[in-house]
Structure formats: C-alpha cells, structure tokens
C-alpha cells in the first residue's frame, strides 16, 4: 500500500473552531470507516499554544492514487471547509522492532 502523510491547517476566521467542533463527529465517522478498510494508520489534532485545535495530521494508506483522491473528495473536513490548506506527501512508516 502507498502511505501518505496529510498535514492540514484549519481556517482562521472567528467561527473556525466552532465549525470544526460541529463537523468533528462526521470526520470521526469517516476515520472509523478508513480504519475498518485498512486505510487509517494514525491521526490527531495540531494544537496551538492555548491548546486549541488548529489543524490535523493523518497517516493514511491506499492501494492506489484513486483511493487517495476518493478520500479527498469525501473527507468532511475538506468538503465542509474546516481545513484551509491540505498538504499530502508520500510517506513511509518506519518499521522498528
């Protein structure tokens, strides 16, 4: 499987955090499906100095580029305009031990 690291930063407008919190259950539902399908490796929120969520990092894996594109087209944080920037790069999880 091809692995990818996704680094995404949220919009910074006044309502950004409230929007994120409203969409978060849908994002988690989508992540659960990714995990069930073997596509989710790990993920979590990027926090600012105050401890507020301002973005996300995910490591995902797909058999093909089409799988990655399909995820991008359906990810709630993308479709609902939570993430302002999304950077996807090929990645390889180190197998240590």
What does this structure look like?
- This protein is of the alpha+beta class.
- The protein has one domain: Dimeric alpha+beta barrel (Alpha-Beta Plaits, 2-Layer Sandwich), CATH 3.30.70.
- 36% of the residues lie in helices and 37% in strands.
- It has helices at 16-36, 65-74, 76-79; strands at 2-10, 40-47, 53-62, 83-91.
- Strands 2-3-1-4 form a four-stranded antiparallel beta sheet.
- The longest helix has 21 residues, at 16-36.
- The chain is globular.
Instruction: Name the CATH class.
Output: Alpha Beta
Secondary-structure-derived class: alpha+beta
Number of strands: 4
Strand content: 35-45%
**CATH topology name:** Alpha-Beta Plaits
Task: Label this structure with key terms.
globular; 37% strand; alpha+beta; Alpha-Beta Plaits; 97 residues
Summarize the structure.
The chain is of the alpha+beta class and 97 residues long. Helices cover 36% and strands 37% of the residues. The protein has a single domain, classed as Alpha-Beta Plaits.
What topology emerges from the helices and strands here?
Blueprint: E1 2-10, H1 16-36, E2 40-47, E3 53-62, H2 65-74, H3 76-79, E4 83-91
């Amino acid at each position: 499987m091809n692995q990818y690291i996704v680094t995404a930063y949220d919009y910074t407008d006044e309502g950004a955090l409230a929007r994120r919190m409203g969409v978060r259950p849908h994002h988690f539902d989508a992540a659960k499906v990714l995990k069930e399908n073997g596509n989710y490796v790990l993920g979590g929120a990027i926090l600012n100095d105050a401890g507020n969520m301002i973005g996300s990092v995910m490591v995902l894996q797909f058999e093909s580029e089409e799988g990655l594109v399909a995820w991008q087209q359906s990810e709630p944080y993308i479709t609902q305009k939570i993430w302002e920037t999304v950077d996807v790069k090929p990645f390889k999880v180190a197998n240590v031990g």
